[in-house]
Structures are given as structure tokens and as C-alpha cells.
Amino acid sequence: MARTLLDPTSERRPAERALTPRPPSLEGRTVGLLDISKSRGDVVVDELEALLHADGVATLRYRKPTFARPAPVDLRHEIATHCEVVIEALAD
Amino acid sequence: MVGAMTTVPDGLVAVVKRDCPTCTLVEPVLRQLADAGGLTVVCQDDPAFPRDLPVVDDRELELSWRLRIETVPTLLRMADGTESGRIEGWLRSRWESFTGVTGLGEGLPEHRPGCGSRSVEWGVEDELARRYGGRLLTARRVELADLEDDVEALFDRGWTDGLPCVPPTEERVLRMLGGTRRAPDEVVAVVPPDLVECTVEKVAVNAVLAGCLPEHLPVVLAAVEAACRDEFALHGVLATTWSAGPVVVVDGPVTARLRMNSGINVLGQGNRANATIGRALQLVVRNVGGGRPGEVDRATLGHPGKLGWCFAEADDDLRPFPPLAESRGVPGSALTVFAGAGLTPFLDQASRTPESLARTLALVLRTVGHPKSALGMDALVVLGPEHGRVFREAGWDRERLLAELDPLLVLQPEEFRRGAQGIAEGMPDALADRPLPKFRPGGLLLAYAGGPAGMFSAVISGWVSGPAGSVPVTVPIEEA
Predict the structure, then answer these.
(1) What ipTM did this prediction achieve?
(2) pLDDT number for residue B237
(3) Could you tell me if B141 lies within 8 Å of chain A, comparing CB atoms?
């Protein structure tokens, strides 16, 4: 599979993909909390969850099988269908 | 053994590969030449071949690429670092006269053809050009992330028209550039709406995206050049709320060479050249010019041909008149761009006289834009072969047909005045005191194409015509 492509555009815009627009507020949204299975990742996620709950934000917890590999397709799909926002805990 | 040299010494040079039966056949000849006073042997696949001779290892094929070797064995003579002659394959008499050494290869057959050089194998040549050709291509390199699918990546970056595109790798773009003699850095046109200088290379990148073959590139280049001429008013064609987009009509020997469709379903799907050439032009407008729907492209409706609309005129001996491009002063391989807003097919299965058929055509042409509008838009008529036959058999050529249509296309004030026929739309009062022609002089274009059966033709309506709008442009196409 080809990994380097030639840009067909006028090159007036950056080559990187634009980030998805950030929501102005978390109110009424579901936040996915993804523990990537690094040590103490759960500590970070627990803390974030408590803070979000205090603000009345709904959360869902997810965990990658291993930090060494990309999240499985099914997991990414599940997060994408259930959450509008995701916070990934790298930790260590 | 010589390592990473990129040149060969003066004198005789033989380029061989062990995998070639002719090369192994002439192994004793190479030894004879080496003994006779100097031979450099370059081997593409085995530095131990020929045995007992010093060999330049060219398994990387750089030398073979630089020396433009197409066949092995090739025997070259180098003088002052440049080539002064070469022979290919094995022919005893030629080898003897070329080297000045007699009695070569006793007992060998007189003649054996050579084999293909490894450096010109499929895919290899492109890779060598990329590796050793210097930085020929200047377009920005875009690295894909490991998890990106290379087709999805094109959508993610906004480079497609909504259909999948072919990923423009360096190898593919280099191969595409092989379709033209023009230099990659030559500026073809300044593309609206962003008014960006567009090089041959950028056109080639978008031609790859569109799915073109290298031999299609000269037509795409001509289409870009024509569509970006000031008189075509591409910015307006793009920005208008009207449905217009460029329609490319191709004429001349190039249409047969590229196996373009000018017959059954000529304005439809199914032919690679027709589909991809038109698409490449629109991708140049999108990607280089920055003309995207919903941004500068404000079309209320658009039409399916805005994905790309290109077709060839039929070039058979039944045509009623010479090609469109020739009638516009450009004979041979050429194309015409027209700002077309969609297709109105019409039937007339009963007319057997040119007078009757011309009246049908005029009735349909009167509806272009609005039946009550005059001098507003151009039109391109695609005359089907069975309708063409009626005019041909009556001896009506292009000029005659246009002349006969003129009086049929004059609108009277009582039919076009605002409010007339109970319709508010109409020509302004200031123009309502005289008859008006439907089309400006030169605003009616006639092309000939389509399948052999069916007494059908079609009108492609235009956009704002003339100097205030878009004027069709005809340009020649570079021949192979």
C-alpha cells in the first residue's frame, strides 16, 4: 500500500487533516473515558470521571486490551456510536 | 568489483544479465573482448557473471537506468564520458565491425536477439526514475499515518469529488508525466477561483486521482488550458447558481487513439477516457483552483456532468459536416470547452426532410434558459447519426443548417415581452420593440455523435453567453 502521496492541491492549506471541531460545552453530551491499559491509567480516569460527574456530565468507561496496539475496530466503533467526546488516559 | 559508481569508463562497455540466454551465450565473446584490450562488463543480476572477469555490480540498476539500457546484452562505446554508439543483442558481424575485433564467438550461432533489461521491467522503471531522476517532482509529499487507508485518506483530505480516487503516488505521477513531452514545471494555466498557477505536474497528480492513463494527459492539459482562458470565464461558470459546468468535446485522430466513445451512450458512462478526462479537469478546478461546491461553487442544482463531462465527436464517413473544432479554426486533434448546464434530449422520428427536422430542432432550442429569453445563453447541439443522415442526404452542411435555423429562432415581442403568455418572466421593455434572435451570432454550436439507431439528438444549454459570460474555447491537443 502506498504511504506517500503527492499533494494535488494548491498547497495553500496545511497538509495535516484538520481536527474535528471541539464542542463548546459538555452539557448534555456523553464523554467516553478510555483507559489504554497503562499502569495507573485507571487513577486518571477515576479522577476525571468524578470531576465530570460533579458537573453533571454522563460518562462511559472503556479499556483497550493493550496499550501496545491501536484500539480494536470494534472498540473504536462502540466509542464512536455512544459518545460525542472521548478522553484518552495515557498515564504511567 | 566496482561499488556505487554512477558512470562507466571510456571504451567498450557490455551490459548483461545472467538470466538472459543470449548473455550466457556470448560469455566467451565477452572474455575475448576483455583479452583483446579492454571491456567493462556491467551485470544486472549476478556480480559473479561472467566468470573470471571483473564485473560492475549493477543489481541496483542505477547504471542501467542512467545508460538507458532497454535490451541485454547491450554493447556500448564510451568516449570522454559520453556514449558514441551501441548495439543490442548478438549479431556476430555487427559485434565484429562495432569492436574491430574479428573471429568473435567461433561456433556460436550467427544471431540471437537479446532479452529485456531489468531496468525497464514493469514498475521498476518508475521506481528507478523516482530514485535516480533527481527531485523531478516538486509537489508536497503527504505522509499517510499507519492506520490510514490510502483511499479513505483522499476523502479525509477533501481531494475527491465524492467518488473514490486513485492515490497519487510518486510512481504513478511519474508514469503519468510520461504521457507528455512538456516539462513538469511548465505552467499550464492560472486556475480560478484562487488564481493559482497550475503546472503540468499538478495536472498529472489530478489526472492520477481521476483515473486517467498517461496517454490521456495531453487531452487533460489542453482541457485545463482551454477552460482557464479568460474568455471561458471559469470563475463565473463555477460560482454561478446556474447548473453550468465545463463540457469538453474532443475531435481528431486523438479520439480513435485513446479509444474515446463517440457512439452508443456517448454522453453516458462506461468509457474510461471520456469519464476520466472530464473528471480530471473538474478535479483540477477543485483541488488546484479551490473551487468546491458550497464554497465558491454556488449551483442551485448542478448536474451529474459536473463530475466530468467529456465526449468525442463521431469521425465516420457518414458525418453531415466537418468536426466542431475544425469549424472553429483548429483542425486535427483539438478540443472545445463549452459551459454546459445539462442535457435535453429530444426525438423526431418522422421528419425525413431537413426543413422539417430543423423546425423541431428550433422548437427545442427556443426553450434554452427560458422560452421567452433571447440572446441569453449559448447552446451546444449533439446531433445523433440518424438525424445527421437527414441533413447529410439533403446536402445541408453546418453553415446551411445554421442559416436555415436563423429565421426559425427569431422571437417576436408579443411572445417574449414580460407578461406575455400570462408569464411574468420575459425580456425587458427596453428590448421589447423589435424581434430578437434566440442566440448571439456564433452562439449555437453543432456536434455530431451517438449510436447508430434512434432518431434522437440533444441540446446542451449553456450559461450567460458572450463577452459578458462564457465564450466556448477551442485549442489543439499535443500529438503523441
Answers:
(1) 0.73
(2) 94
(3) yes
